[in-house]
Design brief:
Layout lengths: L13 E3 L2 H7 L1 H10 L4 E4 L2 E6 L5 E3 L22 E7 L20 H4 L4 H11 L3 E7 L40 H17 L5 E5 L17 H9 L4 H18 L2 H10 L2 H9 L3 H4 L33
Parallel strand pairs: 1-2, 2-6, 6-7
Antiparallel strand pairs: 3-5, 4-5
Helix pairs in contact: 1-2
Length: 316
């Protein structure tokens, strides 16, 4: 596929294509379809996949804490709409990058080596076609290659106001202010950019606490957040008390009259203020983000009020 065959577009449209589809459908075939859809960039991840026997590895599509058992793939893998798979890094991680964190990337499996330099081929083919190529990695789910295949140690997990870890979490994100996790992410990005210097950037997936289940809304009151709050002059205890009151209200204090009043007003803040005598909007100040910032722009670090800037690590 030659670069001159395609016209560079002026808008930005990124499409995420996980590596297994390059493996199954072919690199050029996938890129051709993305170009036909108007893409100017593709995001993929630094791993390869293979099918394994039933009940080994991980189900594809994911179980998602039980909610995805009935789902099937609309785009088959290896001719199947449901299968069990395992993954391995597409490269051999440099362990010296990870000296400041207790997490380690998985070793590249022997079967992964037989896949050759698939990701290098994807990068080259995208650039030849006039496309930018980004890596998608998880923001806070070690080892970070794929959302379903990982998770933090309990000591790094986000906690509820009563110190519980929510049960049945779909998104197994760690505490976003855990130093151990942040050090792992810096190590991972350094390792990846050293090995794949030709990528155009990184898309950090799930840099938040996705609320697939109700209890996941009520984190993070971990020791990591306590330390962060104290160092930044935030009254975490006051917030914890308000959140605890709201949690109790939702679980044990709601009536039909409350729900009817909420449905009539559609003003959640006012309703909470009158019903629970709390003002969440005053405790959690709004954060204004640039409206025109591209979703994959990593050239300028994004800094939120009270949060330290996480700059792109310098290459060795």
């Amino acid at each position: 596929m030659k670069k001159e065959k395609w016209t560079k577009m002026t808008h930005f449209l990124g499409i995420t294509v996980l590596p297994e589809y390059f493996q199954v459908e072919g690199v050029d075939s996938v890129i051709t379809r993305c170009l036909a859809a108007g893409a100017t960039a593709i995001a993929t991840s630094p791993y390869v996949m293979r099918e394994v026997s039933a009940n080994h590895g991980h189900r594809e599509p994911p179980i998602d804490a039980g909610a995805g058992k009935v789902r099937l793939l609309e785009r088959p893998l290896w001719g199947k709409q449901e299968l069990w798979v395992e993954t391995t890094p597409s490269y051999s991680p440099e362990l010296q990058c990870y000296q400041n964190t207790s997490y380690r990337p998985p070793k590249r499996a022997e079967w992964g080596i037989t896949q050759g330099d698939l990701i290098d081929d994807v990068i080259t083919a995208c650039h030849d076609a006039g496309l930018e190529l980004y890596f998608q990695v998880q923001a806070a789910i070690p080892p970070g290659y794929r959302v379903q295949f990982g998770g933090p140690l309990d000591e790094d997990a986000p906690r509820m106001f009563d110190n519980r870890i929510p049960e049945g979490r779909v998104a197994k994100n760690a505490s976003l202010v855990s130093t151990n996790i942040r050090n792992y992410q810096i190590a991972l990005l350094t390792d990846l950019t050293n090995r794949y210097p030709m990528i155009d950037g990184v898309r950090l997936d799930w840099p938040e606490y996705p609320p697939y289940r109700l209890d996941s809304i009520f984190v993070d009151f971990s020791t990591h957040m306590e330390e962060f709050a104290e160092s930044n002059g935030i009254s975490l205890q006051e917030i914890k008390g308000t959140v605890s009151e709201l949690y109790s209200l939702i679980h044990r204090g709601l009536s039909n009259d409350d729900l009817e009043a909420l449905a009539s007003s559609l003003d959640v803040s006012a309703w909470l203020g009158s019903r629970a005598r709390c003002q969440p909007s005053g405790l959690f100040p709004a954060v204004a983000l640039p409206a025109t910032r591209p979703c994959w722009d990593v050239a300028t670090p994004l800094s939120l009020p009270g949060m330290p800037t996480w700059a792109w690590p310098a290459r060795q």
